[in-house]
Write a structure and sequence with these properties.
By secondary structure, the chain is mainly α. It has 10 helices and 3 strands; from the N terminus they run H-E-H-H-E-E-H-H-H-H-H-H-H. The longest helix is centred in the middle third of the chain and has 24 residues.
Length: about 220
């Protein structure tokens, strides 16, 4: 028999993770166990289990005598995952390029870029980031390298939020420009240009969030 508290804890966990990862719950924000329990119409038991799980993946921290807080974005952890992604994905993409597997992807990649433009025009950064993930997953699937994705931090809470926040702060259409550079390099069979376009794209999150001149005081409070 399924324990209803376990099922409810999983539901609470996923809903809180979604709110934390999309910055609806701000870094540093305090959560109320009783408030969460009331919103789900449950006791504190499944809430505490959900909080325990969120603490284990770095989304929350529990401070003695103070309560549960959304973690601030750990820029050191962000940079570690950004570096791993740069190294791993650049290799995956260039291997696909060398095997001649990327050109058939070009029309679909252009369609994704057009969709991103539409969502950016609406300031829908969450959907734009989802399409960014879709854009990059193509490279892994074309040569059966999906297993590499788990090491690139696609769903790591600090890196994910950092990517979303940098998208809000960077010059508008930067992501569109960088994706175009990647696709155009594939189209003209420019291996060196493709490698440089990938590296520029992957370093963008660090270039934005680690530059004090680009991060307003309100958002600097989200970082640690």
């Amino acid at each position: 028999m399924v324990n209803p508290n376990v099922t409810l804890a999983s539901e609470i966990y996923h809903k809180l993770w979604a709110k934390i990862s999309t910055l609806e719950l701000k870094p540093g924000e305090r959560l109320s166990e009783s408030g969460i329990a009331r919103s789900f119409g449950c006791s504190r038991v499944p809430v505490r289990e959900a909080i325990r799980l969120l603490v284990s993946n770095g989304a929350l921290e529990v401070l003695p005598q103070r309560g549960s807080f959304v973690t601030k974005i750990d820029t050191k952890q962000m940079e570690q995952f950004r570096y791993l992604r740069e190294v791993l994905e650049t290799r995956v993409v260039l291997q696909g390029f060398d095997k001649g597997l990327l050109n058939p992807l070009v029309p679909f990649m252009w369609s994704l870029i057009e969709r991103q433009k539409n969502y950016l025009a609406l300031n829908d950064f969450i959907r734009t980031l989802e399409l960014d993930n879709e854009f990059h997953r193509i490279f892994y699937s074309v040569d059966n390298k999906e297993f590499v994705l788990e090491h690139t931090g696609e769903h790591e809470i600090h890196y994910y939020r950092a990517r979303l926040l940098s998208m809000e702060l960077e010059p508008r259409n930067m992501i569109i420009h960088q994706h175009r550079q990647i696709v155009e390099a594939i189209e003209r069979c420019d291996r060196a240009g493709l490698e440089q376009a990938l590296i520029s794209h992957f370093t963008n999150v660090s270039n934005v969030l680690l530059d004090p001149s680009l991060v307003e005081e309100e958002y600097r409070a989200y970082l640690r």
